[in-house]
Amino acid sequence: MDFVKNLCATIVSPWRKFQGKSPLGSFITARVVTMIVILFVLGWALFALMALAPGDIVDQMMTQQLMSQTANGPQSGAARDKGMTEEQLANMRAELGLDKPFTVQYFKWLSRVVVHHDLGISLISRAPVSFLIRTRVVNSLVLNLISLVFITIFSFLLGVYFSSKAGTKIDVAATFFALFFHAFPGILLLILLQLFASVSGLFPVTAYPDFPFSASPARFSFSYLYHVFLPLLASFLGGIGSTMRMIRSTMLDQMGLPYITALRARGISERRVYLNHAFRNTLNPYITGSANLLASLFSGSLVLEIIFSYPGIGRLMYEAVMQQDVNLVLANTMFISALVLAGMVISDILLAVVDPRIRYGKN
User: Fold this and answer.
1) For the chain, what is the radius of gyration of the CA atoms?
2) Is 319 exposed, middle or buried (0-12, 13-18, 19+ CB in 10 A)?
3) What pLDDT digit, counting tens, does each position of 122-160 carry?
4) pTM (2 decimals)?
5) Are 133 and 319 in contact (CB under 8 A)?
6) How many CB atoms lie within 10 A of CB 183?
7) Each residue of 207-239: pLDDT tens digit?
């Protein structure tokens, strides 16, 4: 017992000194360590879930082989008799490392990633997982960052504007539509927009051009914006409602505080009161909410990419899960989770920078 107390004191004492000398540095360090621990536990849980799922990648490959043999015609029975034996299947599982407990598989994967920076090979396509992710993640990042930029700009513009029109008919109408689109199922909105594109012919039903960027960069850029307009519209309508209402309510709260009354009593113009004082205090809740918004955009883009055939990392994840490609599923999930957690850590750091109460641990 004394040994445990001494060990804890040895660990805690330097941390307390570091915390006293650099509150912001200790705050950032704590957030980064927390993110690493969460990723570690998440990876272990993913391996456990994949192990609990019925069948494995070898069963999937065997099923595909049998289906292809059946499609070849009347010789399928003989081909099936010459299929893999149980011993061959066991050898294949051993070669892929699937015969070990999932905890052992996880630690082997983790050591390969940390030491050799190798995400492994896709069990289906036999292509490097890092290559598959790299070719898809740029598409998802571009799509989600465009959505985040538009949602941020219009949320601030509309939120500040409607806070100055609180109680009017236009404010009631804007609040109604914001609540309507926030509550409207995203998958249904995507399907309706795709049906609109199919019936009207005004927009393509797929969200990506049919030629590479290298063929014609300028033409690709215009074609890309044309293809992703409807998916971006769905993402925009689904995300702007809650963000705009949050900014509007924060502005209204700020406008009712005593310091606003004091500023008005000093003769400061209403424009300066809104933009120079009340508006700046809406940044804290938005910075906190932006991390959740980015996470919701990434989770929503999974459905978007499947419905509109967009070659992003969400669609890659879906295909990997359906094929039970363990290496690809794990690397995809860990990568997306790392992006979301990094967004949350960055938002915490920005909050600590703009608000000293947070980095000093005070309310």
Assistant:
1) 26
2) middle
3) 766 777 888 888 878 888 888 888 888 888 888 888 888
4) 0.69
5) no
6) 10
7) 888 887 778 888 888 888 888 898 888 888 888
Burial (0-12, 13-18, 19+ Cβ within 10 Å), 346? middle
Distance, in Å, from the CA atom of 154 to the CA atom of 178, rounded to the nearest integer, reads 12
- Write down the residue that tokens 């939120």 correspond to: 159
Place of tokens 């004394």: 2
Which pair of tokens denotes residue 16?
A: 């307390």
Torsion, CA 187, CA 236, CA 238, CA 334, rounded to 10: 70
CA 363 – CA 349 distance, rounded (Å): 16
The token duo for 2 is 């004394």
Q: How many residues does the chain have?
A: 363
At residue 241, what is the residue type? G
Q: Are 155 and 240 in contact (CB under 8 A)?
A: yes
Residue 266 has pLDDT above 70, yes or no: yes
